[in-house]
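re: ur question from yesterday

yeah so i grabbed the chain u mentioned. its 298 aa long if i counted rite. heres the sequnce exactly as i have it in my notes:
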Amino acid sequence: MTPTHRLPFPFALLVVLGLAACGEKPVEAPPAKAGPPVVGTARFAELAFHPEREAPATAQGKNETRLAAEVSARIMAIAVDSGDPVKAGQVLVRLDAKDAELTLARAEAGLAQSAARLAQAEAQTARARSLREKNFISAEALTLRETDLTAAQADVQSARANRDSARRGVDKCTVNAPFNGIVRARAAQVGELAAPGTPLLTLADTSELQVVAQVQARDAEGLSAAAKVEFVVAGQAHALTPLRVSAAINREARTVEARFRFAAAAPAPGTEGRLLWRDPRPHIGAEYILRRDGRYGV
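ran it thru and got these structure tokens back, copy pasting raw so excuse formatting
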């Protein structure tokens, strides 16, 4: 019987493991150590931009006046209607002037009476002075005549003032346009009784149209320094020249009022649009802002 030879156990285990390893993939090497991060640089001027700002705005006249009656009288005629253009001095409304004309007639009659008394007092005073030079009357008599003359002169001045006041009363029965403009609204009708202060017409000034905008307080500084400001309406841009940006802030809306003048032809009063400008202060995108150790930087 052939003798059996056995391998030592440790050696046999190594042989088995070696044979098993021959069928597996080789072990991959550990990844190389990562290098330092790549950092790009750029100048601030290359990244900065100037955002476009806008605010609601309206084209309106420098003056927008509500014409009102100054006397109590019935409205006899209104020569214009809403939307009509008017010229400075043009008659817009006529009130019943009969009572005012009667007052003027009485004042003119009173002035004529006062003037007649003044003429009589002047003649009497001149005669009294002549007689006094000849010692035909006393000094007291001359003084009396001179006093009457002074009173007559004062009466004439008072009567003339009454006449002028009555004449103004007649003039107030006619309402004229104070400037070139457009009738924005008509609030009165023919036949109505107009009382002092009663609005009759609203007149918008067209001699100097302005753009008025309410701008956020934080944008006021940039708007004041903007190189170009435009009023855009219906896709059409109108160049503007600055007038003023108010320093007072509206307490409720936190806005300031800005006014501009049209550099060329202007749209109709009351036109609404947008005020556009570019902020002259450079800005940078938020993606470039970093926070490190509790501090912000670029």
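noticed a couple things. Residues 219 and 279 are 8 Å apart (CA to CA). also Residues 64-96+173-203 form a domain with the OB fold (Dihydrolipoamide Acetyltransferase, E2P) fold (CATH 2.40.50.100).
anyway ttyl
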